[in-house]
Amino acid sequence: MLGKGVVGGGGGTKAPKPSFVSYVRPEEIHTNEKEVTEKEVTLHLLPGEQLLCEASTVLKYVQEDSCQRGIYGKLVCTDFKIAFLGDDESALDNDETQFKNKVIGENDITLHCVDQIYGVFDEKKKTLFGQLKKYPEKLIIHCKDLRVFHFCLRYTKEEEVKRIVSGIIHHTQAPKLLKRLFLFSYAAAARNSTATHPKNHTVMFETLQDWCWELERTKGNMKYKAVRVNEGYQVSERLPEYFVVPTPLPEEDVPRFQGHGIPMWCWSCHNGCALLKMSALPKEQDDAVLQVQKSFLDGVYKTIHRPPYEIVKTEDLSSSFLSLQDIQTAHSKFKQLFLIDNSTEFWDTDIKWFSLLESSSWLDIIRRCLKKAIEITECLEAQNMNVLLLEENASDLCCLISSLVQVMMDPHCRTRVGFQSLVQKEWIMGGHCFLDRCNHLRQSDKEEVPVFLLFLDCVWQLVHQHPPAFEFTETYLTVLSDSLYIPIFSTFFFNSPHQKDTNMHQRQLSLPLTQSKSSPKRGFFREETDHLIKNLLGKRISKLINSSDELQDNFREFYDSWHSKPTDYHGLLLPHIEGPEIKVWAQRYLRWIPEAQILGGGRVATMSKLLEMMEEVQSLQEKIDERHHGQVALQAEASSLLRASARLSSLFPFALLQRHSSKPVLPTSGWKALGDEEDLAKREDESVDLGDL
């Protein structure tokens, strides 16, 4: 298994803290340095990207069980990414290269994607930040897309270690100014290049006409109007230049409180009801000001309560729903389940995995979001009510809930272009603070909350439960979640349209998305999963979700009635929200964990096998017909398909197949509580060796 540029180590599988053992002496590494360097992968730089620091003779660990193997190479840091350049291309099949990200390589980490950096000192793991007095012998990087990288610096020159570690810490952890983001260097370089962006048919909602078209599409133009009162951001830098309000509302009311207290249109239902949102008025202590605010709101409510408007139901998301702190706390706990260092740690923590999942409350938060969206859908669809969403700035939970309602009620939002337009309208123009919520500037951890990721997770539940209703796949959503941390497209790097317009000198492509080839639409917890993986990772999780809260009678009737009928994929779409129906988004969260994947399994692999069988049948038929030349060609094509399917997994196309062994290790410390291994085997249907799959 070992080749040039690869260092191997061994150790007992029961060691609690495995340490690196090299079969190659340091002097041998330096002796072969010239030969290895000649095989290093070339560092590819994007327009405007600059190399900052680098270190040679770095070992990137590929960990399995308690043994450790490392690939020799160079670690570099640019103003865009951290990259490892090693002689590992031979380990990849040619069939895998067609599924690579076009911007980020397998061993690349954008600076914005770095979550935490750890150093190992005498086998002790410590968080790294600021100026270091002592430099680590190992570097561990946890990424926001849940990848984990281990680098050994033991054989790297001391000065290079100082430069690369200090450089990585500074450029990923230190607070930075907006103008120093790589986004601006790339934009400036791209302007001077001849490259052109592909045509994008997403509605950008940057003109008055865009909003008028959306009103016409939803038949909301009879009761609502697009206004230009904020053109040039004269009223508020928080609002877009153009937006929609109820027709009777005087435009001179909008500037009164800089857009606060104004009901803004989100979407109109087929029956004429509409979904609105409103940001709260500024908190005041002065009685006179409070009286003015009260009179102002009374006038606004009278406007939207009188004919031709239906009854209005108000949903105050700031006081009667989730808090941003709830979301952040749950996600912080949840992501730790997937930041796995090695196989031993994976199997050690497996026995308590479901209790940790339950304690994180992430799945319950998803359920509550979907439930709230269904409640609002029921008001619009069944009770013919307008719904007004309230929030302090109407830019977090309002974006989340209004978007979910539209995905459920409007089939246009379930197309690829429609979904991108929805994100542009409700999130970008809606003023969601991506810069703060993703903490791109590293200025305040308190502002970091994964609200948009929560939205994507909720949409994934719908895609997973009703795949025929969507024009896009789960891979599309996974790529979109990764794009949050790639500072090339301006979509997710500003707090408001005003901030984007004043800082960017050129419009860029809205969403960095391309429709993938086929990808698995079935979830991880399906009957096709083999017995061992199903028992360890795919147990039903009904006990994790508290369904004891009684749903309102009208909600329950609406919910049950819809699910009792055949699904119309071009109409209203409701998710199942009870018990085991809320699942872990396996493709996103488990894709970097080889032990959680079924090699050669999953829907894509199954389809590939079916194609192979069809080709074989056709080949045999042609043989019978004595068409020798056609047979040879078809056999070659079938062989190609077979080679490709051998690299597929249940989490295609993100399969991480680098660990040399996927055979599970039963940690004796954890399993003793359940009895000895023979008793355990008797309890399971069958013990399966993952290496044979």
TrEMBL record:
Give me the Gene Ontology terms describing cellular component.
sarcomere; sarcoplasmic reticulum
**Which keywords label this protein?**
Cytoplasm, Sarcoplasmic reticulum
Main subcellular location: cytoplasm
Q: Which Pfam families match?
A: 3-PAP, Myotub-related
Where in or outside the cell is it found? Cytoplasm, Myofibril, Sarcomere; Sarcoplasmic reticulum
Q: Which SUPFAM superfamilies does the annotation name?
A: (Phosphotyrosine protein) phosphatases II (SSF52799), PH domain-like (SSF50729)
Main role? Acts as an adapter for the myotubularin-related phosphatases. Regulates phosphatase MTM1 protein stability and possibly its intracellular location. By stabilizing MTM1 protein levels, required for skeletal muscle maintenance but not for myogenesis.
Q: Which residues form the Myotubularin phosphatase domain?
A: 205-589
The entry's family comment says:
Belongs to the protein-tyrosine phosphatase family. Non-receptor class myotubularin subfamily.
Protein name (record): Myotubularin-related protein 12
How is this protein organized at the quaternary level? Answer: Heterodimer with lipid phosphatase MTM1. Heterodimer with lipid phosphatase MTMR2.
Q: Which InterPro entries match?
A: MTMR12-like_C (IPR022587), MTMR12_PTP (IPR030576), Myotubularin (IPR030564), Myotubularin-like_Pase_dom (IPR010569), PH-like_dom_sf (IPR011993), Prot-tyrosine_phosphatase-like (IPR029021)
- Lineage: superkingdom: Eukaryota
Q: Does the keyword Cytoplasm apply?
A: yes
